[in-house]
Amino acid sequence: MQLTYPKAPSNGVQTLRPALQAALQTRGFGINRQFASAAPGKISLSEAYRGYSLSLEDVSQGKGLQAAKIGDWHYLVFADGVTIADAQLADVHGQVEFSSLNHGNMAAATVDALKLAEQSPQLQGKTVELRVLFVPALHVVAIWLHADSEDVLIPIEPTPNELATTQLYSEAALLAQLKPAADQTRQRFTADTTGLLGS
């Protein structure tokens, strides 16, 4: 399996560097131990890839990945070859700006999903673009391996286990698995008269 990436912002790495250095100096609450102990000189970044999102309505109405809205740029942050964070840049009025730094399990789960994909006979010899898909209303995150002929999705943390396990899904299979939960959540929103749900 060969990974390809979209054309990244030319100043993406320069934009991220000060934010990463500031985070390393802070070593604050919520930063994982590997990140907190990383030496600035040992930090490296992956190629940039894009995040996409599907709304609750998209999933409930059976819309496919073509309805996904493009989002932030994502970079995996490594220290001594170990994944320690997921850094994000947002497009703001044609410029990229630092958006967030995720110290949770998402970065390591992304690497694990890519290892799973590499071992899959289904993807042997194929070229795919790395993407990440979010369905925020259902807390679903999936690695999206996009090719012209097919799309393969691998749910990762923090996706709830009852919605999807970490394995390779076709677009149709994953969206069919998510649809009942999307329908149920939509009904709850529709039935809510307090106006507090989703706020």
UniProtKB/TrEMBL annotation:
It comes from the Bacteria. This is Uncharacterized protein.
